[in-house]
Amino acid sequence: MDQGWIPARDGYRLAADVVRPPSGTGNPDVAIVSAAMGVPRQFYRHFAAALAGSGFTTVLWDYRGVGGSRPASLRGFGATLEDWIFNDMAAVVDWARRELAPRRLFLIGHSLGGQVAGLLDNAESIDGMVTLSSQSGYWRLQGGLQKFAVLLHAYVSLPLFTNLWGYAPWKRLGLGEDLPKRVALRWAGWLRDRDYLLGDSSLPRERYRTFTAPVLAYSIADDPWGTPRAVDAMMRAYPNVERRHLVPSDCGLERIGHVGFFRPRSEPLWNEVIDWLGRR
User: Fold this and answer.
1) What does the pLDDT read at residue 175?
2) Which residues of 95-121 are buried (b: 16+ CB within 10 A; e: fewer)?
3) Residue 17: strand pairing partners
């Protein structure tokens, strides 16, 4: 594994790992893993190793302000969701196309990573995308009691704690990595909007219709965030989507949830993704 940095479009240094296939077994295909909100790149290392073992050079990276791309202090750090999309994610796609020279370039989008890919101005570089639990985050679309937790988060706890601390203290709350202030507050606004980010008129939403690469979109039965209707609401923005729904018991698993697909216990599920990528 090669550890280093990828320059964002504005020069910010993004921590990144390149996981390469064993010597002599690689193919000219590359997969970029774009993380969920508040999830560091190392969380995906087992999945990346499986992709590399099947011949895909795999790129893991952190949004600015998260994981290895976090500054010494998040207080006063001005990162925005636009930075994450247009400066960070777009730069990783540019870098992979330029430096790794793939025959085919794939995106693996987990939650946020799959939600925002359709906004990229270089999406024509992507030959296919697999999304896991990439849903509309609108609170009414969440499952069971989760909708009330998201309602509270969107209207009360996220704005309150973010403004008190100067950033979203997710680690203190046991929710994941801390988030930059402007990222957290903008995301809270999306959670309150019935159309989620698709209701944000400041974004170039027309780009979704030009994201013509095939998309394989998973929902998971025990994911209270990514209910089928929440995933459907987000995936309707993309023109070329194949949907699949995973039930843990049908897969020999007790649970998967919102992040469990990438845990080692879910390794039997990864071959389906690898096979789909190989057929593109």
Assistant:
1) 83
2) bbbeebebebbbbbbbbbbbbbbbbbe
3) 3, 60
Domain assignment present for residue 113? The answer is yes
Q: Is 214 within 8 Å of 251 (Cβ atoms)?
A: no
Domain at 14, CATH number:
3.40.50.1820
Please tell me the total count of domains within the chain.
Answer: 1
Contact 26, 20 (CB under 8 A): yes
Domain span at 253: 2-137+202-278
Contact 94, 87 (CB under 8 A): no
pTM, 2 dp: 0.96
**Residue 195, in any domain of the structure:** no
Q: Which structure tokens are listed for 37? A: 């909100």
Return the residue matching tokens 């845990």.
263
Confirm whether 193 is domain-assigned. Answer: no
Coil vs helix vs strand at 124? helix
CB 171 within 8 A of CB 178: yes
Label the pairing between strands 167-168 and 215-220. Answer: unpaired
Answer yes or no: is 106 within a domain: yes
How far apart are alpha carbons 60 and 83 in whole angstroms? 18
Give the SS3 label for residue 259. coil
pLDDT digits (tens, 9 = 90+) for 208-254: 999 999 999 999 999 999 999 999 999 999 999 999 999 999 999 99
